[in-house]
Amino acid sequence: MRRMGENPYLRERVGSIDVKPRRISELLRSMSRTAYQGRKLGEVYEVLLKMFEDPRITVFMGLAGSMAPAGMWRIVKWLVDEGFVDVLVSTGANISEDIVEAMGFSYYRGSPCVDDYELLKHRIDRFYDVYVSELDYRSMENLVLEFVRTLPDGTYSTAEFLYLFGRFLSDRGIDSIVTAAYRSGVPVFSPALVDSGYGMAAVLALREGRRVAIDMVKDFDQLIRVAEHSEETAVIYIGGGVPKDIINLVAVAQTLIAERSGKRDYYKPHRFAVQITTDLPQWGGLSGATLEEAVSWGKASPWGYKAMVHVDATIALPILVHAIAEEVATRRPKKRLVELLLSAGG
After folding, report:
1. What does the pLDDT read at residue 264?
2. Is there a catalytic annotation at residue 335?
3. pLDDT of residue 330
4. DSSP H helical segments within 177-240, as ranges?
């Protein structure tokens, strides 16, 4: 019988965290040697560092949930501004509700223990424990409507639509996530764009006789072209939902396209993958599906680096990004990928 020190299952000790002054990045490294979701948060950070150090990588961020009213949108904007995100795939809500605050309005601390009928009477909308004035929210939707009225009738991908909207916002001094993406040349895709204030504005424009349409097949094709243009890809998933699924499908689509051109057994899975989610895999939905499961589809690399932490993104995201700001001085920006799409004519 082997002695305990020779047992292959007992090679690496769990680390205990000492309380002492230290940087957030140092704390995360210590947490990666602990257990449970603390370890997973530390492992996510370590994968992010490897991702950002690799010059071959194009980083896709999938942004779901309701991050803007929770005060997280400036973190996402910082990642775009500083070159840590090359492609953003977002719900429509996350790239419209940030505009409310960018316009000068505010979200307010509230409570889930409230009479919502009273809020309705006062024209207050509630996001769990956050309030916003319905009139301020409509001001954002009216701003989107004003933008749609400036567009020539025609068909756009969401990347094209949001690039033009970013320019519109930039000209007005409204510094939102989409504005930062326009400034940095980062394409923004929103495969469920109408499920937000954009949809409200688009319907109002349609009722006015405008003919501005979003082509989702063109949108998906452009997203795939970005991945095809990239040597290697990595993914950062905040939440799950449609943004996660569409970015995963980009890897699958490249396999199918390659097969039609005569290639066999061609796979180009995402080399690095991290996810912050509160969902769980046993419900069968993609938001909780493990990154290991994604390997079976050819979405994530079996030889790459991946880590998933089950924690509220409003906890994990500020910690991780502040550690990145401490430890990663710069990341070499990619070619302005949005201009690649526009110059190719879609």
Report:
1. 86
2. no
3. 73
4. 177-184, 197-207, 216-229
Contact assessment for residue 202 and residue 148, using Cβ atoms and an 8 Å cutoff: yes
Q: Assign 3-class secondary structure to 315-332.
A: HHHHHHHHHHHHHCCCCC
Q: How far apart are CA 188 and CA 161, in angstroms?
A: 9
Domains, the chain, in order of start with CATH, read: 4-92+156-192+214-343 (3.40.910.10)
Closest CA to 197 of 73, 120, 69, 100: 100
Kindly name the residue from 77, 244, 268, 299 that is annotated as catalytic: 299
pLDDT at 94: 97
Tell me, what's the pLDDT at 7?
Answer: 86
**CA–CA dist 184, 77 (Å, integer):** 11
What is the C-alpha separation between 13 and 42, in angstroms, rounded?
16
Whole-model pTM? 0.94
How would you class 183 by CB atoms within 10 Å of its CB: exposed for 0-12, middle for 13-18, buried for 19 or more?
Answer: middle
Q: Which phi and psi angles does 299 have, rounded to 5°?
A: -90, -40
Reduced to 3 states (helix: H, G, I; strand: E, B; else coil), residue 306 is strand
> Consecutive sets of 10 residues in the chain, 346 residues long: mean pLDDT of each?
71 94 96 97 97 94 95 97 96 97 98 97 97 98 97 96 97 98 95 93 94 94 94 95 95 93 88 95 90 90 93 98 90 72 63
| Alpha-carbon gap, residue 140 to 106, rounded angstroms | 12
CA distances from 72 to 76, 171, 259, 284, 308 (A): 7, 24, 41, 28, 19
Phi first, then psi: give them for residue 220, nearest 5 degrees.
-65, -40
- 86 close to 59: Cβ distance less than 8 angstroms: yes
Gap between the Cα atoms of 108 and 122, Å rounded: 14
Please give the Cα distance from 183 to 283 (Å, whole number). 40
Alpha carbon of 44 to those of 6, 38, 175, 307, 328: distances in Å?
Answer: 30, 10, 29, 5, 15
Element (H, E) at 235: strand 232-238
Q: Return the structure tokens found at 86.
A: 């090359």
Tally Cβ neighbours within 10 Å of residue 242: 20
